[in-house]
Every structure is written in C-alpha cells, then in structure tokens.
Design a protein that fits this description.
Keywords: Glycosyltransferase, Transferase. This protein has helices at residues 36-39, 41-48, 107-120, 140-148, 159-167, 192-216, and strands spanning 10-16, 19-25, 53-62, 72-80, 124-131, 153-155, 171-181. The protein is α/β, with parallel strands linked by helices and 217 residues long. The chain has a five-stranded mixed barrel with strand order 3-6-5-4-7, surrounded by four helices. Strands 1-2 form a two-stranded antiparallel sheet. β5 (124-131), α4 (140-148) and β6 form a beta-alpha-beta unit. It starts with 9 loop residues before the first strand and ends with a helix. The model has no long low-confidence stretch (mean pLDDT 88).
C-alpha cells in the first residue's frame, strides 16, 4: 500500500466516456522502499486485464524558465535517473529483451490532447520529464543540471510505469502539473503541502483534457 499522503493506493474499475477503465488512486513510489517490480506491478495487472492505453499524471518541479506554477506540461519524452531499472532481471514475455523507446509517449495521443486544449482554451506546454528517485526535492544545482541535460520538469515517479507499459505494448500519454519551480537565480523553498495545493488547483483542467481524450480514442 502507498504510504504517501494523497495516495490511497488502490485500483478503481469503471467506465468513463463509454470506455472501460482501470484507475489508480495513488501509486507506489521507489522512494517508499519498494523494488521496481513492485512499483510497476499495477501496470502488469493492467496489461493482463486488457488495457491498451495508459494515461499517467504527476506533480513535478519546473525547470523551464517559460513555465509557471499550475501549468500543464504534456510529456513528449523522459530521462531516466532511477538507480534501478524496472526491466532488470528475467525478461517478461510481454515484450522483447531490449524494447525500443523512441516513442515512449504516443505522438497521436499528444496531437489529440493539443487539439482538445486549443478547443477549450486550456494552456498546455510540452516538455521532457526527468525521473529521479527522491524523496528530497532537488537542490538549485540539481535543478540546473537536469535542465542542462535536457529536462523541462523533474519528479519522483512515472518513468518506471511508462517503461513497463511500453515493454507491454501499451500506448502512453503523460501530463505533468508544474507545482513548483527551481534552478533559477532565486532559490524557492517548497513543501509537500504546497505541491498538493498547486496540483489540486490544476487537476480539473487536466481531467477535462483526459476525459475528452478517452471519449475520442
């Protein structure tokens, strides 16, 4: 079970937009002490019950100077800084030993999301998500390093689940809520409560995009 405030750690089965869905109310995080196989086990379950598309969301720190707190960043790619790889060990028969990751986040789904955001007047950004183990928030120097390496936002989740989903042939759409900013001239202190507050305010817009995507997919 998830030990993080705001993460209930359970699966919800239901329908949305006329489609059968499985939703995770919270997720497992590597920093909680779980192994990667445990963190990504829900994705294995989703594959077995027939899920074909995975929608992932997260709260993340923005490093791109064009970002503002509360922005929605559609993930176009990621950089994996986790010390343990979710496919380490014997290969699962859901995919090849060396899965291709050139399109970790489905281009067609991104185009659909962009169209919906434009129709509804919702501000969205595109960017690269950097996945790190946590649980500390980043130092100013770390923020700057990840930015130099090509990241636009940084967080403590998502990447392991996306890797396993792609290994299983599941298409992925990802979106980050920019809940804090870092790596700029003036360091800003951040707390988990502030991150939750910013995420809660942006959630209705993110939900609107995803709900409409499910209807149209």
């Amino acid at each position: 079970m998830s030990t993080v405030e705001g993460h209930a750690g359970c699966l919800i089965f239901g329908k949305l937009g006329g489609k059968d869905i499985v939703a995770m109310k919270g997720r497992f995080h590597y920093y909680e002490g779980y192994h990667m196989q445990e963190v990504t086990f829900p994705i294995r379950v989703m594959y077995e019950v027939g899920i074909e598309t995975l929608f992932v969301s997260n709260a993340s720190g923005g490093m791109n100077p064009d970002f503002k707190i509360g922005d929605l960043m559609i993930i176009t790619d990621h950089i994996n800084f986790f010390p343990e790889h979710p496919l380490h060990g014997p290969n699962f028969p859901t995919g090849p030993r060396f899965p291709d990751m050139h399109e970790a986040y489905d281009h067609q789904l991104i185009e659909i999301a962009d169209g919906i955001a434009k129709e509804k007047g919702i501000r969205v950004r595109h960017g690269v998500y950097t996945g790190v183990q946590g649980p500390t928030f980043e130092t100013p120097a770390e923020y700057r390093m990840y930015r130099i390496l090509g990241g636009d936002a940084v967080g403590m989740s998502t990447v392991p689940e996306v890797i396993v989903a792609r290994h299983s042939g599941i298409k992925v759409f990802g979106i980050s809520v920019i809940t804090d900013l870092g790596g700029f001239d003036t360091p800003v202190e951040v707390s988990h409560e502030e991150v939750q507050d910013a995420a809660n305010k942006a959630q209705p817009l993110m939900t609107e995009i995803m709900r409409e995507m499910i209807k149209r997919s």
